[in-house]
Amino acid sequence: MPSNRPRGRRPGGANTRAEIVDAALRLFSTEGYDKVSLRQIAREADVDPALVHHYFENKAELFTLAVIAVPVEDPSEAVQRILEAPRDQLGERAVDVVMATFERPGAGQRFIALLRAAMNSGAPTNPLSEFLAREILAKVADAQGHPDAARRGQLAMMLFIGYVMARDIMAFPALVKQRRTEMVTQLGKAMQAFLVDPW
Amino acid sequence: MPSNRPRGRRPGGANTRAEIVDAALRLFSTEGYDKVSLRQIAREADVDPALVHHYFENKAELFTLAVIAVPVEDPSEAVQRILEAPRDQLGERAVDVVMATFERPGAGQRFIALLRAAMNSGAPTNPLSEFLAREILAKVADAQGHPDAARRGQLAMMLFIGYVMARDIMAFPALVKQRRTEMVTQLGKAMQAFLVDPW
Question: For position B101, what pLDDT does the model report?
């Protein structure tokens, strides 16, 4: 719809916040999480970058509101809750906390829809995977002093992708039947290897 | 094409072997690996079950010929090669041997096509995943005396599914750049947890 206003960045209005969220959703969906900046989102929403900062603390907060679209905890609080576990239980705690993200109403379906989109489109973006790998999992590895924390975060994330594929899409019988506490223990061992232990 | 022969099971002919392979491909593609029996394949191919046994040692051999369609090693030899590794290196060896399956010409693309089909169809069958989980990975866990070897095989398989998704479909940068030897070491740690270590 063409605007009657003269060209130029709009001042903040009643709908500005919602328009920023919409612009963020468009960009995250097409470009992924890592590549998109707050400045680009401001440009997409046709607002001053300062307004984006006025409404949103940072990219992670805007992402959780725009894409996950359910109230999720601040990722830095998730990291904190993981790091409170004893060192030999960090892997299990990370599985517990990240899996809780998929268990929120609608979140699991949304994650699967994103995997399906990645499968079928040429653009292999899954902003939720990038978000969890960077803002939670890599930060846990970084807190252990690992110089390759980014890679460790991506390896840890691929474990969740495989688990969701095998259980929810491919219906591996032993995973469908598995109790959550067992799942947390068993994936936790692999998570410990990816995030905590030396190679 | 209707046959001029009277109804009844056909004797073996020049094309019988190829027809059995075709019937197996149809059944594995629609039913998955685990549920299909040699008897069903004989019925689908309209031949006597003894003929299937005449041409093929077992279901695994028929599967590798029908579905993987490239000469792969006997899965029991793959298991043997894994089990020759020292106990603390079994995970790495399992990654090395199974990953070699995906590296054969055409096999990686075929695996991705099967994942995509599972994503998009209501029937979540990926016969290659079931095959590798049951005939190779679970057998390695079983050789360690684990009573839950079937589940461990499925957990191990989901690690490969996640890895292929994250690297080949979603292009996680750290995985795309990773050298094979590093990948074997790092996935090997998780594989060790799934196949070898106690929970």
Answer: 84
What does the alpha-carbon distance between residue A177 and residue A115 come to, in Å, rounded to a whole number?
Answer: 23
A32-36 contacts, C-beta under 8 A, 24 or more apart:
A32/A125, A32/A126, A32/A127, A32/A130, A33/A59, A33/A63, A33/A125, A33/A127, A33/A128, A33/A130, A33/A131, A33/A134, A34/A130, A34/A134
| Segment A54-78, tens digit of pLDDT | 988 888 888 877 766 655 568 899 9
With a cut of 50, which residues of chain A have pLDDT below it? 1-7
> CB–CB of B189 and A170 under 8 A?
no
Six-digit token string for A142: 């970084």
Q: How far apart are the first and last CA of chain A?
A: 55
Q: How far is B94 from chain A (nearest CA, A)?
A: 15
- Pairwise CA distance, residues A194 & A156, whole Å: 6
Judge whether B133 is closer than 8 Å to chain A, CB to CB: yes
- The interface pTM score, or ipTM, of the predicted complex is 0.77
Domains of chain B, residue spans:
16-68, 75-195
The single residue listed with the structure tokens 């995906």 is B102
When CB atoms are compared, the residue of A119, A175, A189 closest to B193 is: A189
Instruction: Give this prediction's pTM.
Output: 0.77
Q: What is the pLDDT of residue B119?
A: 75
Classify domain A16-68 by CATH number. Answer: 1.10.10.60
**Which chain B residues contact residue A189 at CB under 8 A?**
190, 193-194, 197, 199
Fold annotation for B75-195: Tetracycline Repressor; domain 2 (1.10.357)
Across B56-71, b (16+ Cβ under 10 Å) vs e yields beebbebbbbbbbeee
Which token pair is B83?
């089990």
The reply to whether residue B158 touches residue A162, judged by beta carbons under 8 angstroms, is: yes
